[in-house]
Amino acid sequence: MSDRGKIGDFIRRNPTIVVGATLLVLITLAALLAPYIARDPIAFEPINRLRGPSADFWLGTDSLGRDVYARMIYGARISLLVGLLVALISIISGAVIGLLAGYFSKVDAVVMRLMDGIMAIPSILLAIALVALLGSSVKVVIIAIAIPEIPRVTRLVRAVVLSVRDLPFVEAARSNGTRVTKLLRRHILPSTVAPLIVQATYICASAILTEAGLSFLGAGTPPEFPTWGNMIASSRLYLQIAPWTIFAPGICLALVVLAVNLLGDGLRDRLDPRISRRM
Amino acid sequence: MTSSRRSILKAGAAAAALTGIGAPHVARAQQKPPRQVRMVPHGDLNVLDPIWTTQNMAAYHGAMMYDTLFGIDANFNPQPQMVGKTDISADRKTYTFELRPGLKWHDGTDVTARDCVASIRRWQAKDGAGQHLFERVADTPVVDAKTFRIVLKEPYGLLIDALAKTSTPLCVMMKAEIAATDPNTQITKHIGSGPFKFIESEYRPGSRVVYERNPDYVPRSEPASGIAGGKRVLLDKVIWDIIPDAQTAASALMAGEVDFFELPPIDILPTLTATPGIKTEVFSKLGNVGQVRLNHLHPPFNNLAARKAAQLAISQEDIQRAAIGNPQYYQTCGSHFACGSAMGVEDGSEALMLKAPMAERQAKARELLKQSGYDGKPIVLLHATNIHIMNQTMLVVAQNLRQVGFNVQLASTDWGAVVTRRSNQNPPEQGGWNVFYTYSGGNATSSPISLFAHAAIGKKAWFGWPENADIEKMRTEWAYATNLDARKGVARRLNKTMMDYVHDVKTGQWVQPAAYRGDRLRGLIQVPEVIPWWNVERYA
Amino acid sequence: MLSYILRRLLGVIPVMVVVGVFVFSLLHLAPGDPAAIIAGDNATEANIARIRASLGLDRPLLEQFGKWAWATVHGDLGVSMFSNVPVTELVQQRMGPTFSLAFTTMAVAVVLAVTLGVLAAWKAGSLLDRAVMGLAVTGFSVPVFVVGYIMVYFIALKWRWLPVQGYTPMSEGLWPWLRHLILPSFALGLAYVALIARITRASMLEVLAEDYIRTASAKGVATLPMLLRHALKNAAVPIITVVGIGVALLISGVVITESVFNIPGIGRLVVDAISRRDYPIIQGVMIIFAAIYVLINLVIDISYSFIDPRIRYS
Questions:
Q1: Is B336 near chain A, with CB under 8 Å?
Q2: Is pLDDT of A261 > 50?
Q3: ipTM for this prediction
Q4: Sign of the dihedral through C-alpha C211, C216, C219, C220
């Protein structure tokens, strides 16, 4: 089969992955090219406030007079960064803790109590408390959203480790005298990769949305720098008066969440043999 | 939409109407209107002691269930309320007050002079004007059950004004045994003598406050004016619905689920007035005055030239336009004492260059900043993000200061964290700050004595800690002045001094109308800093 | 079974200890001064200091923690620093609205999601599958408050079918209670549909691949009854698991919904308390949530053993 045929075949059999990935690539590109395709998102003249879309301001202005289009493009940077970093932090922390907990039962007892404790606190209240007390910055918001995600990842990894730990090939490696770290890395970790990737996409999407919710409750990223979440939240009064201030970031947010979810669903269908067999 | 779908929707709506879904106000119009009002106040009533806290919500609560000895009328002149007869001695050092007849507590007992003296003493421990007064008080003897005296060491023209003011905390009267509570602990029993009774069993902190008419209240005979005059209650029940989300509160008003929305954001006023039946009205003509406080203790604002630079850089017009939006509701103001008030003089405001173009002001500011020797060290601005006006204002201030060369660092937090950090007198890099913003009622701001922020006593002053002996001398002079014109003269000199010294930077003045169902309510009266519900009638 | 339940109930204690220590440290070690907020804007520093002392906030941290932990263990969660109302009373007042909202939201979400998930699994791989799952995800990709505002604008304001905001307890009538909850439940429920539908679809697919289903299908048993009777029952365990997770997540979603629709629930209570630094409320509610979380997990685990006889606890 020719290369083009192979690509066409791939697209036909994995439409969700392709659509999701394409959308994400386009949006990331726009974010990276922001300084070339948009003006300063922070400067403003209050006299320009709440103007509708025009030749000068393609998507109008917000309540301070800032350019909505520029903020939407620059907002992609921080929103995507938040999603990505939250996913990375929670996946890596959760994976490490889950590996250790799944393999060493002594660690397990202590760690799982701790994870239970964190899960017992409603995530948004924990996030609000952290931001209220540590001040509003992108760093704090990322950590505040990531922490409640860690226990679920830990559970996921721990479950995989428990199911793989006593399988023959692991036993064999162990009796061969393989060092624990190598054992974990070479023999157990690979089984966790597929579910972790899928989980990462869901965490990424959820993080971008949670950031919007936190901004709504007054515990989001500082309003000076645009994120889609804080743009939507700070413009919520203007639904009837200046709807462009909500719809521009809102549609972007929905698109990215949709894209990431499609990617995650597609990957999950591909990587989980039980489902892909049925299809 | 296809016609079949439209007809289904219509049928559905008709069926819904039959079962009582929707349009509840239509059904209500057939019966007599309930003598009840639902109001959405600007905040939550979480402290029930109007003396212990200076929060405005507690003052509203106080005005409902308590009564005052004197009260200011619509022209800000103090009038007797609980007091029947006032007698001032020839040497102006002894004031004798006799209570009018018919005053009873909500538990049925009579109001006595002993109650009043105890209440005044508790109030003055927490109030700036009260403390200023009581430094000159020799004694407060009780003469008989209805009469008491305040004996001064020297004449003090503002005595009755202090008792009558509506800036928080109001001097409300409580029972002697409740007023005996330490001023730094909250009262636990709530018994007033005011026109409304507080229904404690229906109080839901953060959600609902309920008041009922006090049938035993004897109003004065004069018409109601400000918080003076006859407080005739024409409603049976007043319910405060605490709705923190402005969009939801606006929708509730439009749907008729609430009757009064105290502080709708100015931007949604057009949407509200577009709904038939909704009126907007300004109830506090002096509105609010914003102030940017500079930290006089640490560089760069311990240097006069740097302060002058900031004063020129900060644009009242930009701030008001960003924070309030509609020029109909705001004005730039060159007074530290609220334009439009008796003390609203603007002497010395040339220093602000309010009429000059921004470019000119910024050029001068840059020059002044260079003169001050500013080294480019970042200055910390405390930025409260959860209160709309504060959020917008600080973003403008940050941009204004950056445009003339300040290296600005925004510390964005909620208001609670600002309130905590602003009291820290350490240098900014050790938990302190350089700039923060807040606003106060125009009425409160108009008194050089009542508003603690006006004091310039250094480290014991209000946050910002300005220190200037001339300002302090003039404040005392103002308090001792014997008539309005004399006070105005002092205010002129005081305003100029505060401008030249850059005590703080005022950011302009604005009014915020309330929105209410004019198709249901009438009789609302204007009172600064308090929302009164006597005199109000529900007619539909 | 009984000893299992007992053991699980005892497991509440370490969780609550972790939560208690964590929340207390978070609140007291980081900047925040309820005394300044209580005193109001016009107060002097001296007054604020006196209020702080009267609330016991200037005592050493360990002493404050000890006092609070001791009281909590005895069931005394303290009083609000602002209104002096006992925390347990505040929570009691607000439990009803939050539980009502959580219950109706879950009902809406489960009904919609299971339907969509079964449909998607039945026609797995087809356009319908993609469309249905795409629809589910759309409900999830718009922030709850935006969905809420839009619903209120059309359904409550323009068409006047339902109220804009508020809550009436069930004691004042079933229909008034329900009509205030319809909009919020849908606005919030949509966010969970994707989550539950996804798991429903996945576990249905797993079951549908099992041999006995293929046999039944080959035997000619009609597809829909077969789906419902055989497949769904066996797919129930993971679905209930995710519903359990959903309930835990639900409290987070409820916080925003309570603000948008003005429902006087625990979510708003805690958010207000956090912004005021009203420590006793924050600490007390977190402890209660911890206990509820453990209880819900227990209920879910027990329900497994009723649905799937293969799961037994000794």
A1: no
A2: yes
A3: 0.84
A4: negative
